[in-house]
Amino acid sequence: MRKILKCLLATFCLSIILTLSLNPIFAQDATPTTPLSPKEIATVFAYDQNAPLEIKDVGSETRGDVIIRDITFTSPGTEQPISAYLIVPTASGTDYAGVLYVHWYEPKAKTSNRTQFVDEAVKMAEKGTVSLLVSTMWSDPKWFNVRKQDGDYQDVIHQVVALRRGLDVLLSQPGVNPKRIAYVGHDFGAMYGSVMAATETRVQSYVLIAGTPRFYDWFVFNNALEGDKLVAYQAQIGSVDPLKMISTVKDAAFFFQFGEDDGYVPRETAIEFYMAAPEPKRLATYTSDHDMEHDIIQTDRMDWLSDRLKLN
Q1: What is d(CA 295, CA 15) in angstroms, rounded to the nearest whole number?
Q2: Which 3 state secondary structure label does DSSP give 221?
Q3: Using CA of residue 271, residue 273, residue 278, residue 279, what is the dihedral sign?
Q4: Whole-structure pTM over 0.85, yes or no?
Q5: pLDDT by residue (tens digit) across 32-65?
Q6: What CATH class is the domain 2-309?
Q7: Which is deepest, 31, 57, 129, 287, by most CB within 10 Å?
Q8: What is the pLDDT of residue 229?
Q9: SS3 content of the chain, % helix, strand, coil (to 5)
Q10: Rounded alpha-carbon distances, angstroms, from residue 264 to 26, 143, 229, 279
Q11: Nearest CA among 283, 266, 284 for reference residue 18
Q12: Sign of the C-alpha dihedral, residues 311, 203, 189, 209?
């Protein structure tokens, strides 16, 4: 199977010429955008890391030697506490790895919320990992169509800060080693993780699954702006695009996973995203659509994380 995947990957890479997609919705934004400088990034995404997290337990479930805690915590810019699952080994430890999981957005899917990676996080806990699976603004199935497009830029900032607060929660857990921290994100989870990566030095490993390198690629599906407002929107949201933010990251490794049959992320778009990331990095493609649900995808991801996090 792995030999087949390597052949597919080689064919995938050799067949790509970085041109615009035939579908204009995925085409690179023609409006010039200026990426944020490192100083601007630090300022725009700043928050008080010493503010109380106000972690509260809502419930819990035990699976073998693993506990799934249902919790909430607070974050600046969010009106309601953020719901999350904190998945931990039952045994106390002093050198656990930590993983922050961020789900995808597919309103019709049962996994379009913090439940998406629960089974994987349980398996990781059995290997000695503490995981946090957070809710996001797109956990609401209606989010995309009810959001206000001219508020997207500020929403990006608030969501990235909320993910950083998730890291605060993860790192506050007993026994979590701050030098063994990873992030896993699918779809919007991959995109926002790429932006967060430019603001963080606390995560050493990122798995980015089926994301697109520009917010504009997807945010215009229900475009309500035109003329000067659309031009201004493109410039503003483009300044924090995932491919621009990820290019500024230092001292982190990336594993990109894409589907060959993904109707939302064309081949050239996937390659462009991968190329924007710094080394060390890895790219794997699979015979999958955007849901990326095949067992081999999870297995590859867990193997890579196990190696990066030095798990048993």
Answers
A1: 26
A2: helix
A3: negative
A4: yes
A5: 567 899 999 999 999 999 999 999 999 999 999 9
A6: alpha beta
A7: 129
A8: 93
A9: 40, 20, 40
A10: 8, 18, 25, 25
A11: 266
A12: negative
Tell me the average pLDDT across 192-202: 98
In angstroms, the CA 197 to CA 21 distance is 27
Q: pLDDT tens digits for 261-295?
A: 999 999 999 999 999 999 999 999 999 999 999 99
Tell me the CA distances in angstroms from 72 to 54, 124, 135, 162, one per residue in order: 8, 22, 10, 12
**What are the residues whose beta carbons fall under 8 Å from the beta carbon of 77, sequence distance 6 or more?**
157, 158, 161, 162
The single residue listed with the structure tokens 């926002």 is 192
Q: What angle do CA 192, 139, 71 make, to 5 degrees?
A: 95
Beta bridge partners of residue 60, listed in sequence order: 69
Contacts for 286 with CB less than 8 Å, ≥ 6 apart? 5, 8, 257, 258, 259, 260, 292, 294, 296, 297
Question: How confident is the model over 173-184, as a mean pLDDT?
Answer: 98
Of 8 and 25, the structure prediction assigns the larger pLDDT to 8
Per-residue pLDDT, 65 = 97
Check if the beta carbon of residue 29 is closer than 8 Å to that of residue 272.
Answer: no
Query: What is the Cα gyration radius of the chain?
Result: 19
Pairwise CA distance, residues 41 & 197, whole Å = 11
Distance CA 47, CA 160 (A): 10
Q: How far apart are CA 267 and CA 16, in angstroms?
A: 7
Confidence of residue 3 (pLDDT cuts 50, 70, 90): very low
Distance CA 211, CA 190 (A): 5
